[in-house]
């Protein structure tokens, strides 16, 4: 897989790729949007703690599919307020630390989720070539 960074457009605004090319024959894992909710139903306060939990949940889904953060080709994230962006981005960058290839990434500000205490939702798409 390779990051797509056309020189004819502006550079990404953060640590992400404009696109990722995935060759034919790759295995895929697509995770539903994950909220910052622990197995016991607890929801931590703050966007940063919720984002970290979202990424931990994504990691568990990827592991169940035989993949990890290095296989992620796209992240879609949603926050309920612009002020949550920095905390979300810090959690995302921590989760992706040490990787040489960054995924494509989108962050959208939304009006809310199913419960008012949820501040962040993250979904990931991963791909891995056989062998």
Summarize the structure.
The chain has 131 residues and is an alpha+beta fold. The chain contains 2 helices and 7 strands.
The overall average pLDDT, rounded, is 95
Uncertain regions spanning at least 5 consecutive residues: none
CATH H-tier superfamily: RutC-like
Helical segment tally?
2
E-strand count: 7
In whole angstroms, the N-to-C terminal distance is 14 Å
Q: What order do the helices and strands follow?
A: EEEEHEHEE
Descriptive report:
The chain is α+β, with helices and mostly antiparallel strands and 131 residues long. The chain has a single domain, classed as 60s Ribosomal Protein L30, Chain: A. It is built from two helices and seven strands. The chain has helices at 47-64, 85-95, and strands at 2-4, 19-21, 27-30, 34-35, 72-79, 104-109, 120-128. The strands form two sheets. Strands 3, 4, 5, 6 and 7 form a five-stranded mixed β-sheet that branches. A two-stranded antiparallel ribbon has the order 1-2. The two termini are 14 Å apart.
